[in-house]
Automatic annotation (TrEMBL):
GO terms for biological process: endocytosis; molting cycle, collagen and cuticulin-based cuticle. Keywords: Membrane, Transmembrane, Transmembrane helix. One of its GO terms (cellular component) is plasma membrane. InterPro entries: Patched_domain-protein. The chain crosses the membrane at residues 43-63, 238-259, 265-285, 297-319, 339-360, 372-396. This is SSD domain-containing protein.
Amino acid sequence: MPISAPNLSDFDATSLFSLHDRLLDTRPSIARALGDRLIARHARYPIVIFCTIVLIFAIWGCANVRVDMREEYFLPLGAPSRAFLQDYREMFGKTTQFLEIVIDDPVEYEEPNVRDSIIEILDVAVSSGFASRTVSWLVEFAKFEKNTIYDINADTFVPVVNLVFLQTDPYKRFASDISFDRHQTQIVRSRMYLELTQKGINERASLAQLLLSKSRAVHLPMSIRAPFTMSLKHDISVISSGIFVFGVSLVCLLVFSLFLLGQPALTFVLLFTSVAVLAETVGYVTHWGVPMNAITITMALSANMLASVIVMAFCYSYSVSGKQQMRAGVRIQYTFQATFLPVVFACLVPVITYLPLFAVDAPIIIHIWKVLLVNSAATLIHYLFFIPNLCLLFSIHMPAFTSVNCTDCCCDMEDDSSIYYIPTTARAVHPEGIYQHTSYTYSVPKSMVNGGPPNYLAITGPPLESNYAGDYVRANVERTRTRRARRISEVSRTLLPKLL
């Protein structure tokens, strides 16, 4: 390419739209026809009903989400270690019915309020239906204290527990549940149990959160352990951690979308779509039997970024659809023409390219694929049904509700003797001037206007012939009849017959 080739260094907004409209392909296509059908007036109510049903079932699934992390999820179906774990659970399955409550630091067990607080925490689990009974040395010691002849106070509590209570036959089974310091003068650690009901087994994480909240309220150093649970701490904190990470991502999307694009409507559509797609992903994979854990939640959060990118691409294409396409319906058709194939491939490629991993028959592989499939389906549903109608809502319906009618507020101040300037000489209109509209829905950020291509030279057509004065009179003078003049005319027509 010669260095001296004619070119334009950059484009302003008017030149950009002029070039865009010259290169625009407005021929009929499948994508344009699809966009026209999806925003048709007769299709709006069915779309609203369909979207409502989708969101209701998604919320229902989120309410019934199941948090679970097991070793078997990472093992192939025919692995010997998996068979060993299954046999071990069958032989010692009853141990899963117990929940260990451990007080790790020294506490004043001899104080009545401390003992009452511990017993009350255990009773909450029983009264809530999570546990059928408690196995606690402290409860048994309270019964022992009522029947003993020993004087139990702050000085004699530990010796009586160590030398008398734990040496009695019915209470020897608690010897492994109490740990003393090396001088045998203080209880440094104790353990108690809850025998869980089926509800407690299924909702072990909820029970643990309930007990921990009660212990924090009374300042007890309590921890909870569950046999055959890979990580009870993981089960308790994975949902809250996922919500925190998602909240941080929403804040980042909010800030960057406002900073880069400067469109509050686009920001709202972006945030709504991100929240809805994640809720639909979690809800529908829960209906499909996929447990929530650190891996599946991380995959759902990562895949949710695809929906955010698609929303920004759709809304940006809608806002820069050209000055010749002023109607919202035509803009939607153009947006589908520009984004339909990229969006479809972006949703299908991750699902299809993941299929070779099915050579590993671990359940976690299937769980991740289900998350990808549901997320892609939810993203496509929003792309086809939610986002176009939201764009119509913010570009047509919302301005119609919030706009102020000039004839109702300010035109009454005009008088019949108002002076209007009417140009009488015809002027040639520059071809680029036809793009100087003010009714464009979105503005184009200056940061997103690209430089002109090399060797491009703007070639304009001949001047347009127009009767500017006549158009101006018809468009403005005939429209300036005010309501005051109309009221005078009506009064004249009413009073004239009476006077005659």
